[in-house]
Amino acid sequence: MTQDERQQFGVPSDGGGKDFGVFLPVANGGWILSDTTPPLHGSYAQNRAITLQAEALGLDFAMSMAKFRGYGGRTQHWDTSLDSLVLMSALAAQTRRIQLWTTFHTLLHNPAVAAKMMATLDQVSDGRAGINVVPGAYRDEFAQMGAWPETIGHDARYDLATEWVTAVRSLWGRDAVDFKGQYVTLNDCRSSPRPSRRPFIVAAGMSERGMRFSVEQTDALFIGGRDLAETVAISARARALARAAGRRLRLYAMLTLVIDDSDAAATARLSRFQAGFDREAFAGLMRSYGVLDAETGQENALTDRARSGFMTPVAAGHPQTVTRRIIEMIEAAQLDGIMLVFADYQDGLARFASSVLPALRSRWGGAPALDRTGDAMESLSYRNGVA
């Protein structure tokens, strides 16, 4: 067993359980392209309340993305967004159990600066920090700030990210680091303090190069296909690469939950959300991906799915229906956990925790809820986007 396999990160999958976390809506509109969903403003007040509620209800992690340009449209989808690291640092000071995973773009952040930022987040969170490493981006998002390297293609961005992660991990473990790569250079570089434990590292690339990067450099990979069969195939490919490399790679997927008192009621809510589909924002999303991904030659799963208004797979229905769907997805794709998205986070988290999560914990084990529901409920004025 390697040192990475022995490392514990404070989540149920450390011992063979399943991890359930929440993808924070740090950008307005969340993960549904619609103007008929409950308002998500991408505000600190909302994200604080959601995180406190998720911790109180027993979820294992909260993750935030880093976004610098939205998709426009009548909803101005994702045009407003919070900084990932600053947000997670603030949330770390107000929570005590939930794991907090922030996002870094390797094209934007110097690895020595990132290493110190993460060591600081580790202190603020008392060892609950994780990092989502994003090697790529969308050209317009970075070109607007003069940060898009025209000469570095898709696979080369993963080469850069490999050097970046290697440099960061070296700074977390050694007094001084000399590193000379094609993209990263460190000369007798010092970084103190060090994290109390190595932060959890995740990524989301599903190309062959992206998977190899995750197998070699990260602890977990987010996967997703157009349907369950494609997700199962992607999972099998990732696990085969990890076995060949002799490494453990945890696999997660994203899932939007719409839970209601009956399947019919949940379906009606889905229809209402889809009726408000923001076609202009969808066109902006397609433009950001180049309509067809110029580097793979085909539309990806996210853009294909977003035609319905939803940017992730969806499980909708009565709690028993949603529970069966989650179990089917985890077992078929051999997942280690699910990162959850909701149209209405307050209602969705409450329904999930009371009527779905108990069955999942009974099946796979996990952490109990904290007795701080009052703290979370007190701050749930985020429906109106105010503190």
TrEMBL record:
InterPro entries, A to Z: Luciferase-like_dom, Luciferase-like_sf, SsuD_RutA_monooxygenase
SUPFAM superfamilies in alphabetical order: Bacterial luciferase-like
Keyword Oxidoreductase part of the UniProt annotation: yes
Top-level taxon: Bacteria
Membrane-spanning segments: none
UniProt cross-references to PANTHER family, sorted A to Z: ALKANESULFONATE MONOOXYGENASE (PTHR42847), ALKANESULFONATE MONOOXYGENASE-RELATED (PTHR42847:SF4)
Identification of the protein by name: LLM class flavin-dependent oxidoreductase
Lineage of producing organism: Bacteria, Pseudomonadati, Pseudomonadota, Alphaproteobacteria, Acetobacterales
